[in-house]
Amino acid sequence: MRDPKKSAGGAHGRRGSKGSAPAASDPSNDGGYNAGMAVFSYIIGGIIVWSLIGWGLDYLWGTRWIVLAGALLGAVGGFYLSHMHGLTSSRKNADERHAPGAPSQDGEDNAK
């Protein structure tokens, strides 16, 4: 099955010259903002949900520390989920927009 976002630009061709702005549906335009919002929502959502679970357990058992453990567990779990979805990596190998992390194979510096 083909991705409709990827096939939309290739099937009809791109209009304009190289200097024109890419289409609004291009996923590379808003990836940083969307990824940041997703990481933020995973972490904040995890803190809220697990704090409420901890608060309920504190109420049932008469303790006062489980809500804090739940908040910490939610933050760690939210970061883990965002990492597993690939939202926290700083390098994008598929785009080839970032410089490689190692020197070139011939050992020469290619900077101009």
Automatic annotation (TrEMBL):
Protein name per the record: AtpZ/AtpI family protein
Keywords for this protein: Membrane, Transmembrane, Transmembrane helix
Taxonomic lineage from the root: Bacteria, Bacillati, Actinomycetota, Actinomycetes, Micrococcales
UniProt keyword Transmembrane helix, yes or no: yes
Transmembrane segments: 39-57, 63-82
Residue segments, region Disordered: 1-29, 90-112
